[in-house]
Amino acid sequence: MASLISKAVLSKAAVLATAATLLTLTACSSDSGSSDAASENADGRGPITYVEGKDTTETGVVRQIIDEWNAANPDEQVTFKEQSNDADQAHDDLVQHLQAEQSDYDVMALDVIWTAEFAAKGWLTPLEGEFALDNAGILPATVESATYNGTQYAAPKNTNGGLLFYRSDLVPTAPATWDELTASCTIAVENNIDCYAGQFASYEGLTVNTSEIINAHGGSFVAEDGKTPTVDSPEARAGLQALVTAFETGVIPAQDTTFKEPESQQAFEDGQALYLRNWPYVYGTASKEGSAVAGKYSVAPLPGVTGVGTSTLGGYNAAISAFSENKATAADFLRFLQGEQAQRIIAEGALPPVLTSLYDDPALIAEMPYLPALKASIENAVPRPVTPFYPAVSKAVQDNTFAAIKGEKSVDQAITDMQAGIESAGSN
Amino acid sequence: MSSGRAWLLIAPTLVILAIVIVYPVIRALVMSFQKDAGLDPATGMFVKGGSAGFSNYTHWILQQCTSASGTLVPCPPGTLGSQFWGAVGNTAFFTVVTVSIEVVIGFAMAVIMGKTFAGRALLRAAILIPWAIPTAVTAKLWYFIFAYDGIANKLLGTNILWTGDAWPARFAVIIADVWKTTPFMALLILAGLQMIPSDVYEAARVDGASAWQRFTKITLPLVKPALMVAILFRTMDALRMYDLPAILTEGNPATRTISILVVEQIRQGFNSAASLSTISFIMIFIVAFILVKFLGANAVATQENQRKGTAS
């Protein structure tokens, strides 16, 4: 160890390296206040750039849409800027460009949970006046997910909703309500399998599953202003109680607290669960080779209290940057994205479209038999809390729900803490 | 060489260091004294936060959050502010336990590797494999091992929720970390062991020293410098631990370390994250300082003696 001579130097260097690692993480510029950029360049026309995370659809949905647009609009070409596959990285990339008020990103695909944050930072062009979109025929919940503080800021592009997968060989008709579902768990006991599988590890999926059951009972998380907490209500308590009871009675087995999408899907495909709550993509994978349930499952909307439940929305909205120089073209492109031509390309790429009529299209239903169930699910869907403090709100929901379903905290306490947590979100 | 020319030659290095180290550090310090942007209730838009004084620091250390009415209240459960001391506790626990286990096992491995036997080169190479695998891959590997229907539960015949329950999750992280970094420890200690001249042992043997005496009176003191460096490196590594618990037990509050808290806070507000990373920097610095000052000084002296001893 000749290097020991310079040990002191080494350790100092290591300390500095530590500092650099930790500190560069946060060495980004602070938030700039909103400017008047949103109202500039409203008439601008010309080439624009469309930004979206990596297109993982087999059919290459984004390229197809852009090619169609470019063929019809030779003077206003759209360039596709493809980001990383990782949603957090895509988010950070957008933040960097917008914070610097750069005009190179004209239209951006935003995860539904980012929309309110970007709107509140003044980075999006409000879709009112000449930019107003015609929302007739668009699923109402998706428009709600793009609306912050009473103003629409983005155009819903593709959506996603939770579905109830069930073993059609064991359960003749899908349960319509949560009570019916829990009552039918005797079938699971008779067959020596678990009843219900969902995503209950402490991560974003837990927020999704929790908000589905709380919304189904009529509860909510934040008011329309995106800030005032509303979760401390008898409805939300009833919802969380239903979830906690399901864990206590074994309707949802304890191991589900370690499950994310892949594990819950695996449990169902191994024939270990009677019911599975998951996203539509499972419909295809559960019939592939290696699945024990191929041909033995069917799909239904999520169960609610008295009827169809409320699914949580996933999906992406498209928004115009406040710093875009060609906003008129960008607005036309948003309208094109919501048009039937583009929406059909999206549907054929196995992404749930936002245009209601496509869910009744016989040709598409033949390809994707889950569409009617998904339609029922999404028509009743509620977006996740629309708030500029989404990460903090989601954290408050996740951590307190996790403690409640593990029996470390009473339902009352969890709801009280959730309310307080949402209240202090973003105020430090 | 004139000192002016020397300065000229190291100037590029200094400039680069200033850009990549000094600037971010100062920038983060400045940010940590600014408030995060808040929401203007009238417009629903974010407005600049302004100066924060030490409130970003008291937010973490005293766990104070602002309520809707603007008064300071203890941070409610489920907010990041309430998780600071828990994260400090987890980090300290992981550091103490993993480094202790790694020293013991690493030492044993180094002693075995130091002996001459057939296939020694192969063993030395093989032992490095866990260290060579990227941490993210290690974490995912152990994630599958510790899954509910994974190998760990199958082998033990148990139904433990390794990534879901608090203590099993902590042990899962410790096991994976020990598996991954013990080879590093072993290799550093082995390097130290090989510095010890064999004639010292022979002399001791002639004088009738037992194996235990040879270990405590010769091996331990002479290997101490190498051991101290290994411990210092590993301690600081463990204090910064992020990827292993983040991937192995994603989101589980029982394994949340300070670095995980920093990254989660970055998603909520840069300025509070800057103060949190400054706090953790100071804590790591203090730990490193103590190690170098009280244990390292001794190590340097030992090494000096050792060099003098071998030279004569």
Automatic annotation (TrEMBL), chain A:
<dbReference type="InterPro" id="IPR006059">
    <property type="entry name" value="SBP"/>
</dbReference>
<feature type="region of interest" description="Disordered">
    <location>
        <begin position="29"/>
        <end position="53"/>
    </location>
</feature>
<keyword id="KW-0813">Transport</keyword>
<dbReference type="Pfam" id="PF01547">
    <property type="entry name" value="SBP_bac_1"/>
</dbReference>
<keyword id="KW-0732">Signal</keyword>
<feature type="signal peptide">
    <location>
        <begin position="1"/>
        <end position="19"/>
    </location>
</feature>
<comment type="similarity">
    <text>Belongs to the bacterial solute-binding protein 1 family.</text>
</comment>
<protein>
    <submittedName>
        <fullName>ABC transporter substrate-binding protein</fullName>
    </submittedName>
</protein>
<feature type="compositionally biased region" description="Low complexity">
    <location>
        <begin position="29"/>
        <end position="41"/>
    </location>
</feature>
Automatic annotation (TrEMBL), chain B:
<feature type="transmembrane region" description="Helical">
    <location>
        <begin position="168"/>
        <end position="193"/>
    </location>
</feature>
<feature type="transmembrane region" description="Helical">
    <location>
        <begin position="125"/>
        <end position="148"/>
    </location>
</feature>
<comment type="similarity">
    <text>Belongs to the binding-protein-dependent transport system permease family.</text>
</comment>
<feature type="transmembrane region" description="Helical">
    <location>
        <begin position="7"/>
        <end position="26"/>
    </location>
</feature>
<keyword id="KW-1133">Transmembrane helix</keyword>
<dbReference type="InterPro" id="IPR035906">
    <property type="entry name" value="MetI-like_sf"/>
</dbReference>
<protein>
    <submittedName>
        <fullName>Sugar ABC transporter permease</fullName>
    </submittedName>
</protein>
<feature type="transmembrane region" description="Helical">
    <location>
        <begin position="214"/>
        <end position="233"/>
    </location>
</feature>
<dbReference type="Pfam" id="PF00528">
    <property type="entry name" value="BPD_transp_1"/>
</dbReference>
<feature type="transmembrane region" description="Helical">
    <location>
        <begin position="279"/>
        <end position="301"/>
    </location>
</feature>
<keyword id="KW-0813">Transport</keyword>
<feature type="domain" description="ABC transmembrane type-1">
    <location>
        <begin position="88"/>
        <end position="291"/>
    </location>
</feature>
<dbReference type="InterPro" id="IPR000515">
    <property type="entry name" value="MetI-like"/>
</dbReference>
<keyword id="KW-1003">Cell membrane</keyword>
<feature type="transmembrane region" description="Helical">
    <location>
        <begin position="92"/>
        <end position="113"/>
    </location>
</feature>
<keyword id="KW-0812">Transmembrane</keyword>
<keyword id="KW-0472">Membrane</keyword>
